[in-house]
Amino acid sequence: MATGRSPTNIAVIKYWGKRDEALILPVNDSISVTLDPDHLSATTTVAVSPSFPSDRMWLNGKEISLSGGRFQSCLREIRKRAREFEDEKKGIKINKEDWEKLHVHIASYNNFPTAAGLASSAAGLACLVFTLGKLMNVKEDYGELSSIARQGSGSACRSIYGGFVKWCMGKKDDGSDSIAVQLADETHWNDLVIIIAVVSSKQKETSSTSGMRDSVETSPLLQYRAQTVVPSRVLKMEEAIKNQNFESFAKLTCADSNQFHAVCLDTTPPIFYMNDTSHRIISLVEKWNHSEGTPQVAYTFDAGPNAVLIARSRKTAALLLQKLLYCFPPQDRDLSSYLVGDKSILGDAGLHSIEDVDALPAPPEMKIPDQKFKGDVSYFICSRLGAGPKVVADENQALIDSVTGLPKGV
């Protein structure tokens, strides 16, 4: 039995569109930031036993089918690379050829909403591949692991590393060069603070998979973006990250998010991932950035309405939180559950109680100062850059009962 924990990641240069559906090969390179796994991550336990009659998987306590091609690809590729395993203390020895015959039980848990545009599949599939690899004693080659994770969910390949990560689209037909590489680790630029506005934790109407397929088939803007815009943007983004140039980083991040959603609108039929609340958050950030004369915050939206806001410093993040809570106060007046993750940011923003939120002045850049949108944001998450996957050594934290072979509590 092995347990691992993998972070989610948010793309700042977006992946949208595949050149090969089966192998999940993208039409362009993409770049992401890995989020702190304490705040957003998937935890997965994988158990193996000769008594298991078939492969089974549970996600957040509910059994799901493993028959899909993506899960099967990950299982097949890891089994192919499995090596002999021995635990003398427990008296267990598994030969290389035995792994093919043994069935696995997989239990996975996300500590954030699934399928709501927060890259839950990226965390989940990266965690599955990483943990299976640990269980089956697969050689540690993160590039190769990222290539296997990619076959489960494209953006999962970027969750194999921490910090800033680039997914190289690759040129080869077999996809062997379509892998993730780390541009810089999570300590490289640790001034950055990330605030996520969870506008909706509901599952989205158009899945990323079907949305991408429609865009590739019908959007002329997607082809132009992939061939002309993204290659130069990727180079500029790598430079901005290397030099910690926030102005360039923010401008590129916002522009790429907006272009991705423009591609969605250019698709037939058009795809709407953002909603009015998403647009209000963009407007708030744009007006503030403009009034300061230089970007304070970058925004980016994946395939969903949730805003990922990257502040240049902790001080800026505290000011951003004041503005957000003025515009989007909590529905039930409970501040402690309205901001999760790194709650200490509330203290930095001088917000110790709901009365402090009530007393906030209107942001000076707002045209109509009294406009408030109570209940439009479900909650906020405060996070930062984080590390890649880790083994969870404490057996008490395993999600599977070692006696029954079933998820704990099932």
From TrEMBL:
Pfam family, one: MVD-like_N
GO MF annotations, alphabetized: ATP binding; diphosphomevalonate decarboxylase activity
Cited Gene3D superfamilies: 3.30.230.10, GHMP kinase, C-terminal domain
Protein's UniProt keywords contain NADP: no
Keywords, ordered alphabetically: ATP-binding, Coiled coil, Lipid biosynthesis, Lipid metabolism, Lyase, Nucleotide-binding, Steroid biosynthesis, Steroid metabolism, Sterol biosynthesis, Sterol metabolism
Domain Diphosphomevalonate decarboxylase-like N-terminal as annotated: residue spans: 7-180
Enzyme Commission identifier(s): 4.1.1.33
GO cellular component, one term: cytosol
UniProt xrefs under InterPro entries: GHMP_kinase_C_sf, Mev_decarb, Mev_diP_decarb, MVD-like_N, Mvd1_C, Ribosomal_Su5_D2-typ_SF, Ribsml_uS5_D2-typ_fold_subgr
Sequence ranges assigned to domain Mvd1 C-terminal in this UniProt record: 194-392
Protein family: Belongs to the diphosphomevalonate decarboxylase family.
Protein name: Diphosphomevalonate decarboxylase
Lineage: Eukaryota, Viridiplantae, Streptophyta, Embryophyta, Tracheophyta
